[in-house]
């Protein structure tokens, strides 16, 4: 790229920064303030958590699919949670469900996804040396690490980890005497989540500040890659909703440990009346879902942003409806805050209020449909390259549509009377939020692996991994819709009361469990590929996917500060793929219009005169400011 | 092309394209998160209050006096800012110290407010109307302690003459945060008076 060089001589003063000498091992790899290292820390912690979280689900799937199975072989891991007759302890079953939900939603798909890719891509794609505050960023990871340590520790205590479901509804979660899962494990859950919220707030504040304040010259909001838009909106959602969860958790802690009655009222435990009067358990649900619903989009939006980028790059076409994509993400982010009560249709709320929330909920289908439509029209007649990242992105579109359709059914407050808390809900959110976000995460790893580690991942293993996972996930969650419509409630240890649960759907549950084990096994291909490629992977080129965004203008393995010399300026949007008349089928963002006269549109020729202005702008280079 | 770019880059004085220093921006986002904590708390209060079974009690008058003390401390904080702008270091140190002392007085008065509540037989454990009172004041006091720490670091910087007319960022951050904590308390106080 001629432009990168053409900018660099102007940097006579770039070496002002002189206190960035090589640092000690601890500062470089452990307590690092470099966004790329922190991103890798998040990624690896997230991968470890996902292995733990999915193994827990395999354990309870064994119980659900094969209720009479002898599980003695799990005793080396679970110890006394497997009783003498080889049965899984029912209390521990609840703990498994709870921890699976908590770990996957918060530790894998929030911290592992946003933490990794917001950290890694925001500075690289907007043209910044690092995050606005490297120190807060480091703090964010280590708060997450502490939260992880507490949550992990809670798996091993005698009374078991929290067991009241990942939503921890009081009064169950507020009364330690209620069941085993509400004892010390619940206290640790609350401590861990409080630390986790602090970590997410520190991270999110940094992401927002960086996107707004540290963009390079010419990188206006209308030239930002969709990834950055998604990360930005995700961080805004987190900033507004996580403090509310903190409030809810704080009041719950007071109820649990200090005897207040925010959520507790007139309760009998074992025939004994508790002193608590005047509380309202529904209050917790309101507070929880005010976070809980935006949380769904905190998980999903980054995945949508990354796959937009990957699909445009690998279709060799501009993203269809760039502005519509931004508008629909904004729409989703806004609506996320005013639909929370659709999780509470059967909590005894006023049916009129329910219909208002139903209406608002169904509106989400509009921006979501715009996104799905834009994905498909971007793919339409594109010159598609089926890289593993691209396959996973297309897989996300598939899950987003098939899981989103059932959302329209569930958003209906009348249908929800039948479907509430059944496996239909489980199937819905695992497809649209769980699997879709996980595919976004995997697509992101396959796509940006060369930039992270300077190596290429093995494509063949990537293809095998994709097809096994894609088929496996549908085999798990498609039958689950039927089980749900039939009336199977979620979180039940065993279904022994009715003939239809005992006989008719037993084989389907066994099938789902086998499919879950199959899908879990397939993930080891990815882990092998990931580790093996870091060590023995083929060396990456500078821009292996011929992509337009700024991260591919950095050295193959960017050092501290990302660019050697001046940060490139930006002249065009990030989606100039297959532009008619252009020499190649992509024009990176840092190529000025004055160098691409053959492909410019009339209005772009007019922009040439503005290039001087862009170049003259102050480069917000952190390395040139005292810090 | 090369020369042309160089000329432009060297000829023009770098101009500030940003509206805000990133640290100040971080502070504002931090303030947003605190606002959300209290927005959640006060709406929880309203939702719970609407359900009835609500204890009515007198809000101890000391909370009104403590509000006055906190407003006063905001004024001295502003005095510190003006002093720093004029490079009047003695006044700066004095003003930050007074602000800090008034912050401590405020905390002590809040504690006396709790004592007065207990005398009224309004306890932390009991009807949520009382519990909320303790949570609001306690949570605000917790944030005020963090504000005191920010003040101490500003005072430390003032003694080492790192705050002056050309280097106001740290003081401005401390002042913004302090004024915010002041406004937050005034909001909570009037909220509690109006909806108690």
From TrEMBL, chain A:
InterPro entries: Cyt_c_oxase-like_su1_dom (IPR023616), Cyt_c_oxase-like_su1_sf (IPR036927), Cyt_C_Oxase_1 (IPR000883), Cyt_c_Oxase_su1_BS (IPR023615)
Keywords of this entry: Electron transport, Heme, Iron, Membrane, Metal-binding, Respiratory chain, Transmembrane, Transmembrane helix, Transport
One annotated GO biological process: respiratory electron transport chain
Domain Cytochrome oxidase subunit I profile residues, every copy: 20-571
Compartments reported by the entry: Membrane
GO molecular function: cytochrome-c oxidase activity; heme binding
Pfam families listed in its UniProt record: COX1
Membrane topology annotation: Multi-pass membrane protein
Signal peptide: none
Keyword rRNA processing set for record: no
Record field: transmembrane: 42-64, 92-122, 134-157, 188-214, 226-254, 287-308, 320-340, 352-377, 389-411, 423-449, 461-488, 508-531
GO CC annotation, single: membrane
Record carries keyword Iron: yes
Annotated family: Belongs to the heme-copper respiratory oxidase family.
Protein's recorded name: Cytochrome c oxidase subunit 1
Organism in which the protein naturally occurs: Spirosoma oryzae
UniProtKB/TrEMBL annotation, chain B:
Membrane topology: Multi-pass membrane protein
Record key words, sorted: Cell membrane, Membrane, Transmembrane, Transmembrane helix
SUPFAM superfamilies, alphabetized: Cytochrome c oxidase subunit III-like (SSF81452)
GO biological process: aerobic electron transport chain
Gene3D superfamilies: Cytochrome c oxidase, subunit III, four-helix bundle (1.20.120.80)
PROSITE patterns per record: COX3
Origin: domain of life: Bacteria
Alphabetized Pfam families for the sequence: COX3 (PF00510)
Membrane-spanning residues: 25-47, 62-84, 91-111, 131-159, 171-195
A GO molecular function held by the record: cytochrome-c oxidase activity
GO cellular component terms, A-Z: plasma membrane
Domain called Heme-copper oxidase subunit III family profile: residue spans: 1-196
Record localization: Cell membrane
Family membership: Belongs to the cytochrome c oxidase subunit 3 family.
The protein's name in its UniProt record: Cytochrome c oxidase subunit 3
